[in-house]
Amino acid sequence: MCSSHQHHDDVVADAAVKGVTFKVEDMTCGHCAGTISKAIEHTLPGAAFSIDLESRQVTVAGDAAIAEKAILTAGYQPERLAR
Q: In angstroms, rounded to a whole number, what is the distance separating the alpha carbons of residues 78 and 73?
């Protein structure tokens, strides 16, 4: 998704977050992760979440449908993983 900008290193990584996990294959860099972060923070204020850029996974504690919509609205294609 990102190809013509500086990559960002401000990726959230907190393996302790429990919740629904999404595979987001088109989250390819720190900028993508930051965009998804902002979307979740805006849509689910105060919700705990983690982003693992290496595995392209986003875990959100909170309403799964709202989290999924936030990621979609940010321009990415989340796939909910079975737990």
A: 10
Q: Percent of the chain, pLDDT > 70?
A: 78
Residue 64's CB is within 10 A of a number of other CB atoms, namely: 15
Straight-line distance from the first to the last Cα atom of the chain, in angstroms, rounded to the nearest whole number? 27
Q: Rounded to an integer, what distance in angstroms lies between the CA atom of residue 17 and that of residue 24?
A: 17
Distance CA 58, CA 55 (A): 9
Q: What is the token pair recorded at 82? A: 């079975």
Angle between the N-to-C axes of helices 64-73 and 30-43, in degrees from 0 to 180, rounded to the nearest 10: 130
User: Per-residue pLDDT tens for 8-31?
Assistant: 444 454 556 689 999 999 999 999
